[in-house]
Amino acid sequence: MNKSVPTDPSRPADDVTRHVGYQLKRAQAALRGAMDKALREHGLTVPQYSTLELLALRPGMSNADLARATFVTRQSGNVVLRGLQEAGLITRPATADHGRSRPAHLTAEGHTRLAAVQAAVYAVEQRMVEAIPPQRVEALLIDLDRIAAALED
């Protein structure tokens, strides 16, 4: 299985599917597909779910902060927030107190919907984590954090 994994980054593997970047993207695509399937049954998208999770953790986040944290553009983040607001899952003031920021908060219905969908999403993560020996999970998290930090501007 590891026969063509490059040990020297300047020398690529003979098989592109053995590159770290390729395997990372493959894992991300599989995760996204599994989450899409689980969330579809609850009438949510991955960005909508991520927004609800973040607002439960940090009420009052702005559109810009939520967009960054959910890996979408500010414009897409605004569409997500509008959809969640129209569905009665979040509230935002009609106007900004200062600047352009309109902090978002979960409604009671937003908390209820989030609680209903969390089990499905956590089951996806559990399937993913069970594929890794338990003693390697923490090291994987550290490695993924290092990868992200090395590539961030």
From TrEMBL:
SMART domains: HTH_MARR. Residues 17-149 form the HTH marR-type domain. Pfam families: MarR_2. One of its GO terms (molecular function) is DNA-binding transcription factor activity. One of its GO terms (biological process) is response to stress. InterPro entries: HTH_MarR-typ, MarR/SlyA-like, WH-like_DNA-bd_sf, WH_DNA-bd_sf. PANTHER family: HTH-TYPE TRANSCRIPTIONAL REPRESSOR YETL, TRANSCRIPTIONAL REGULATOR, MARR FAMILY. This is HTH-type transcriptional regulator MarR. The lineage of its organism: Bacteria, Bacillati, Actinomycetota, Actinomycetes, Kitasatosporales.
